[in-house]
């Protein structure tokens, strides 16, 4: 399959067998949404306190254990990539707002450099052999 058709965003719902207690469903859900694994497990166990939910939870867990694929070993290069893709999937507005802020700050730095390079001070410093990294003594 060509690279064009491959999925760019590797962040999707997987069963996390590495951190699993039973089948890794709770660990996978926690990883996907960025929750604490213990918190998700406690929430599932708490649903067993309400008898009407017990069959629903058991059937849902079994179905999810069958349907959700196992998480590949080398899915992300590092934690920064994992957090970025989790943010893109769960809160894209925040991620793109942060990226927009970074690009605006880079653009401001570039404008300052352009203003200096096109200024008379730069041409005088250049004629005198002084530069931004050289001393002015």
TrEMBL record:
Recorded topology in the membrane: Single-pass membrane protein
Top-level taxon of the source organism: Bacteria
Subcellular location: Cell membrane
Keywords: Cell membrane, Membrane, Transmembrane, Transmembrane helix
Transmembrane segments: 20-36, 42-68
Phage shock protein PspC N-terminal domain segment(s): 12-70
GO-annotated cellular components: plasma membrane
Pfam families: PspC
Entry-linked InterPro entries: Phageshock_PspC, Phageshock_PspC_N, PspC
Protein name: Envelope stress response membrane protein PspC
């Amino acid at each position: 399959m060509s690279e064009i058709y491959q999925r760019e965003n590797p962040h999707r719902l997987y069963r996390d067998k590495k951190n699993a207690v039973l089948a890794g469903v709770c660990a996978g859900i926690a990883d996907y949404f960025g929750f604490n694994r213990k918190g998700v497990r406690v929430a599932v166990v708490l649903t067993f306190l309400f008898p009407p939910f017990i069959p629903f939870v058991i059937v849902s867990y079994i179905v999810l254990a069958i349907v959700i694929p196992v998480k590949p070993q080398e899915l992300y290069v590092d934690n920064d990539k994992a957090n970025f893709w989790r943010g893109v999937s769960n809160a894209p507005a925040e991620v793109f707002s942060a990226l927009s802020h970074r690009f605006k700050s880079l653009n401001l730095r570039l404008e300052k450099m352009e203003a200096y390079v096109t200024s008379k001070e730069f041409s005088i410093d250049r004629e005198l052999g002084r530069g931004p990294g050289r001393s002015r003594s």
